[in-house]
Hints:
The structure is a single chain. The two termini are 23 Å apart. Helix 6 runs antiparallel to helix 13 (403-421), helix 7 packs antiparallel against helix 12 and helix 12 (379-397) runs antiparallel to helix 13 (403-421). The protein is 44% helix and 17% strand. The chain is of the alpha/beta class. It is flat. A 6-stranded mixed beta sheet has the order 3-4-5-2-1-6. The protein has a 6-stranded mixed beta sheet with strand order 8-9-7-10-11-12, sandwiched between helices.
Amino acid sequence: MPEQTIFSDSIFALSSGRLPSGVAVIRLSGSHTRDAMVALIGGVPEPRKMKVALISDTAGLPIDRGLAVFFRGPFSFTGEDCAEIHVHGGRAVVAACLAALGNIVGFRQAEAGEFTRRAFLNGKVDLTASEGLADLVDADTEAQRRFAISNASGAQKTLYEGWRSRVIAARALIEAELDFSDQEDVPGSISGSAFADIEALAVEIRHHIAGYRRAEIVREGFKVVIVGAPNAGKSSLLNALARRDVAIVSEEAGTTRDLVEVSLDLSGVKVTLVDTAGIRDATNRVEQIGIERARAAAVAADLVIELRNLDVVDAPILYDTAPGIVVGSKSDVGTHKLDSVDFNVSSISGHGIEKLLAEIEVRAVSAIGALGDILPSRMRHVELLSITASLLEDSYSSGDIPLELRAEDLRGASLSLGRIVGSIDVEDLLDAIFSSFCVGK
């Protein structure tokens, strides 16, 4: 077990979310946790057993009757002495509990992600598991939950540490050839077999990196951008797909000036629908900015819905971008049929809306692929994996470079892999990673 990091101060925070609520959970961690239990409930509960207790402030005045549980370090989430106090989730009750804890010597309010940061520093979780926990808290859809729980349970760590072990094993063979090439029991050119595995590993890592876009879609959502001419019915279509009034609908052209977004959950996949300004030759500067944003959103989209008005002859083709769907709008009043239209819809009658929504769902599910696949979930993973792959490729493709330098490439590759899980030199990353967590986690 890693050596425990000793912190001079103890921390506390509300960990259960927005108030009011039926129950509020206040989390404590640090060397002063036992003192807090004595001060607030009159003693330290038996570890890992819930105790019904009268919770009082430091002056002995009752706050609430609730539950308390104590976790002795290092057998806790953070590796320190920890505790939880469960009270009724009224704002006044929680405020009184937090004020009482703030009056205990050695305690302070926790910063964002500080509990998980202490767990990492005490070797309870690695960085990839920490990031998985953050994703689990933020998960809105089933796909996000499954992806997060896999990473929080150590799937990424197992993969990356396995790759690092292969690199270290290859380094050992190469250094053996360097150091003991004159010994009879060390065969010559043993580095050849090592570099064969390194080449295969580089291919594996490049393939893994290519999956980042799938992970990004799981975490951020499958982005669907609706484009078209003014009054083509884009805002009405957004409202129909979302099944609620999200965007303002008006017969006046150019009503939508900025991007309007709404998120849906389709078969467990987050899908973000984006309404945009109508594309035309505008003279108004504000409308021009909206049109520029519409074009930029279409370029960055995972799917573009090009909406054409069936009630207008020779509707303009605004985009010829893949992937895309061409949709004819206002099918309830349109008298003209357009060629190359994939779907005809009416936001008023609902005609074709379910079919279009089903097509979006199919494409979103296809975009994320198999949920069981292990994928890089952060750009920092991609950056470090790219460095690793480049160093591995340099090591086996540079036959005219001395073996010592090729071994140094492998050393750099193993360091990069170690930085992903946090086993090597990551202090400069910690503030950036844990500041994105919610307070109380």
